[in-house]
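Kindly review this protein for my students:
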Amino acid sequence: GTTSAVLAAAYPSVAALTGAAARLTALEDDVASKDTHVFVTITAKNLYNPANKLEGKYIQSGDGLIVNDAAWATSGFIPVTPGKSYTISAAGAKRSGLAFYATNTSTAGTSPIAGSFVGTGTLPLTVTAPAGANYLLVNIKSNTVPEPADIQIEEGTSATAYEAWVAPYPAVSKDAVYPLITEIQNPSAYS
C-alpha cells in the first residue's frame, strides 16, 4: 500500500500531465504573442557606426571599385533597401565618393552595382538605392581630406539633427502599455 501511495504522489496521472502540458503550451503561446506585440526593437536613426569604419579602403572615382590605401577610410557596409532614399550629412566636408553594392565584401577590386557610383562630396547629399543594392559604402576620409565630425547617414530625403549611432535595443511598445495603464486606472471596466 505505501509504495503505491508514494508512486502515485511522485508520478501524477496521465490526465494531470496532459492538462499541465496544455496549460504550459497556452502560456508559451501567450508569451510569444506578447513578445511580438509588447516588445519592439529600437534602431538608431544614424546608420553610420564609426566602429565599423573600414580603414585602409576607398571607393575609386568613376568605377566605384574598392581599392586599398592606408591613408583612406570608408564607412562600413550599411544595409539598404532598393528604392529607398538615404541622406548623408556631417559637420564639415567629407571625402567625395560613395557607391551601392550587392555584397559586403571589402576585398580590393569589388565592383559596385553598375552606375551607382556618386562622386560628389557636397553635403548634405541624398541618394536612392538602386535595384540589386544591399549595402551603401561611403568614403569618409583621405590623405588630403580629414574625417569630419558628426557623420550621419539616415533613411529619408533630408538631413536631420545629428544623433550618434547606437546599437539596437529592446523597448516596451507604447501601444501595449497604454491599455494596461487604462485597465489599472479603471479596473471595473475590465471585469
